[in-house]
Design brief:
The complex is a heterodimer. Chain A contains 13 helices and 18 strands. By secondary structure, chain A is of the alpha+beta class. In chain A, the strands form five sheets. In chain A, strands 7, 8, 9, 10, 11 and 12 form a six-stranded antiparallel sheet that branches. In chain A, strands 1-6-2-3 form a four-stranded antiparallel sheet, covered by helices on one side. In chain A, strands 14-16-17-18 form a four-stranded parallel sheet, with helices on both faces. The mean pLDDT of chain A is 93. The longest helix of chain B is centred in the N-terminal third of the chain and has 13 residues. The chains are: A alpha+beta, B alpha/beta.
Chain lengths: 400, 300
């Protein structure tokens, strides 16, 4: 789960890290009032979960309170990468001497953790990594022993800091690390940390992501900082996706509902995890026009299959249904068949005359096939490959 | 002797009283793999399909010192603790089935096993099997179904997907090709044994002539493995199939397993295919092509 910048900064402040003086506002009048109180130029920062907001005008400078009011009005009307801007962070504009980049994350290659710093902060760090990798310093860290004082010291000297700023940075690195570990973050990123001409060391940005699999045990901690659960995706879910997710959530048994909306006419009930990827690839390769992606696995009960199937069949534009899965180990094929038939009967769809491609095998396959025969549905078993089954499904409705 | 599991495998199941765990325990017993004990704290003295349940792993191992393999199937927040308990009881092979373990805990349990030189498979694994010898988990379903998909032979499958491991075995079986060992390495980004850590065992395994890898987008495990295969001149032919090519076109979206997410240019299906092909690994363009390539490479 991504945190908003202002939420991350609230956490930073709580552990004694200096952040710019600022206020979260939702109206231009508030921006003007707070800018007046600060006295001096301010930065207006759109609070959205998308990255790269600066490049599209979501972060702007205002010299006067009147300008702050006008500019914030403009930003509050923006939509940044699918997100409406609802709030702004109004902050004192800092007198920048140096900008530093810091991030902490997991590293799949070493199966551990990683801290990354650069004296070239304030810009797109991916560009720095690509063009001048020597300007980045990384230290791989184990998962039991975290960042140690000597490592924070090494990094502070690497960044060319001396005196009070050096020790301030060491202290900030150790505190950021504490946040990273204590809150089960999968990412803590600061771009930039600012050293002002007056010598202040200020964390001017925050990008925190909490590990979704740890949310349950972080719930109370986050609530103390007034941070609550939210839907997290690179794009906003469609209502079709939301309804499917609700079906999946309604019953903990098995998966039947992780669905992605596509604009085509072929409804898909496919599984399991790796199988869905393989089948979806095969459908596209054969020129198919899918209405959705989905994953069915882990032995979902009939009720869940039925509800998901009903949702897919009712999706506007759907003209046929492909139920294709890999050979199941722990899911029952008959549950799949029962759920599908039940959904059709309830929607007054005659299974015998509706375009269906059914290919599944594994536990209780004979029961499943008996049910399908009873309703006049043709089916395929393990001797038809996933590739062949996908091709038949595409041919059943015609190509794009 | 196959790698990791064989006729001498003696199993303890952590979390045996759970819904999934009791189901796969039955499936293993039915296949003839000895599950000697289970552990669920507070349920000591109970039985699951006649398998005695203990409160701690040490109690179980005292009673059955021949236990050499543990399956961990416990809730995500207690998985790290459970794995450490098994390591401390001296178990040399731990297969973690638990899904959705917090990242920090997953890293810690992986590191703990590495420090103690314990072979860890998973987390988020569905299990493994050596046809005709032993199986861990519900792999392949009931015996009658299992035997349709897995016939004994000389092809090893390492798979990032549990379901597609059985589909792949089934495809090979239809073409008369059998399996020496099939291992679902787990669908998480951080796992105990990736391809690169299992291939050295298969290089030395005289029951394995050919290796099939089922790969997915996300992580750098295929890329690292390919570099190693090229550098060391791996002695046996390898076939790789990469699923989820469409994921490349939707960066940042998660599909399938937790590890399937393409970020920037890292982990793309296309990148993996190019790298592996460059290392001399045979690429199956479609899943069914695995069978044709296997027949050719086994000279049948």
């Amino acid at each position: 789960m991504k945190l908003y910048e202002y939420e991350g900064k609230r956490i930073f402040k709580g552990v004694g890290i200096e952040i710019p003086k600022g206020l979260l506002i939702s109206s231009p009048a508030q921006a003007r009032k707070f800018a007046g109180e600060l006295g001096g130029p301010v930065i207006l920062k759109a609070q959205v979960l998308a990255s790269g907001r600066g490049k599209v005008g979501g972060v702007r400078l205002a010299e006067t309170p009147v300008e702050a009011e006008q500019t914030s009005e403009e930003i509050l009307k923006m939509n940044i990468k699918g997100y409406d801007v609802e709030n702004l962070l109004v902050e004192e504009a800092l007198d920048i001497q140096k900008e530093i980049y810091i991030s902490m994350t997991y590293e799949e290659k070493t199966k551990g953790r990683l801290i990354l710093v650069s004296a070239s902060g304030g810009v797109d760090i991916n560009e720095v990594a690509e063009k001048t990798p020597e300007k980045l310093k990384r230290i791989s860290l184990g998962s039991w022993m975290g960042l140690q004082t000597f490592q924070a010291r090494e990094l502070a000297f690497y960044l060319g800091l001396s005196g009070k700023q050096n020790s301030a940075l060491q202290s900030i690195l150790l505190k950021l690390w504490k946040v990273f570990e204590f809150y089960d973050a999968s990412l803590v990123e600061v771009n930039p940390l600012i050293i002002t001409r007056g010598g202040r060391v200020v964390v001017a940005d925050s990008h925190i992501e909490i590990d979704n699999d740890a949310l349950l045990r972080q719930k109370e901690r986050l609530a103390k900082s007034e941070i609550f659960d939210r839907v997290d995706n690179t794009r906003l879910p469609t209502s079709f996706e939301e309804e499917a997710a609700a079906i999946d959530k309604s019953d903990y048994r098995g998966v039947a509902g992780r669905v992605v909306d596509f604009p085509g006419n072929l409804g898909l009930l496919i599984g399991a995890g790796g199988g869905s990827l393989t089948i979806f690839d095969a459908i596209l390769r054969n020129g198919g026009n899918p209405a959705n992606y989905c994953e069915v696995g882990g032995n979902p009960p009939v009720s869940k299959v039925y509800r998901l199937c009903k949702l897919i069949l009712q999706k506007p534009g759907v003209k046929g249904l492909a139920v294709i899965t890999n050979v199941f180990s722990n899911s029952r094929v008959d549950f799949l068949a029962r759920g599908m038939i039940k959904a059709m009967l309830e929607l007054d769809i005659d299974p015998q005359n509706y375009p269906i491609l059914f290919r599944s095998a594994g536990a209780y396959e004979e029961d499943a096939y008996a049910i399908l025969r009873k309703y006049g549905v043709k089916y395929l078993g393990r001797d038809t490959t996933l590739d062949e089954a996908s091709k038949y499904a595409v041919n059943m409705l015609g190509k794009k | 002797m196959s790698i990791l599991i064989d006729k001498n495998t003696r199993v303890l199941v952590q979390g045996i009283t759970g819904r999934e765990a009791s189901a796969f325990t039955m499936s293993m017993l039915e296949y003839g793999t000895p599950v000697l004990a289970g552990v669920t704290p507070g349920k000591g003295g109970h039985k699951v399909y006649d398998v005695p349940v203990f409160n701690t792993v040490k109690q179980a191992v005292e009673m059955y010192p021949e236990i050499n393999t543990v399956i961990t199937s416990v809730p995500p927040f207690v998985a790290m603790d459970a794995v450490m308990e098994s390591v401390d009881a001296g178990i040399p092979l731990i297969n973690v089935f638990t899904e959705r373990i917090p990242r920090l805990d997953a890293c810690r349990l992986v590191e703990y096993c590495r420090l103690h030189e314990v072979r860890l498979v998973g987390p988020n694994s569905l299990g493994m099997c050596a046809p005709g010898k032993a199986k861990l988990g519900a792999i392949g379903g009931p015996s009658v179904e299992f035997q349709k998909a897995y016939i004994p032979g000389n092809v090893a499958i390492l798979s990032r997907s549990g379901g597609m491991m059985t589909e792949t075995a089934s495809l090979l079986a239809l073409n008369g090709i059998g399996i020496s060992i099939a291992i679902n390495i787990g669908g998480d980004p951080i796992i105990g044994s990736t391809f690169i850590e299992l291939l050295p065992l298969l290089a030395k395994d005289d029951e394995t002539e050919l290796i099939v890898l089922f790969c997915e987008p996300g992580t750098s495990s295929e890329e690292q493995m390919a570099a190693w295969v090229q550098k060391t001149g791996f002695p046996k032919p390898i076939i790789a199939f990469v699923t989820g090519r469409f994921v490349d076109t939707m960066p940042g979206m998660r599909f399938g397993h937790a590890a399937v997410i393409v970020e920037g240019n890292t982990g793309s299906a296309e990148g993996k295919i190019q790298t592996m092909r460059g290392a001399g690994i045979h690429i199956a363009e479609t899943h069914e092509q695995i069978a044709q390539l296997a027949k050719k490479l086994l000279k049948r």
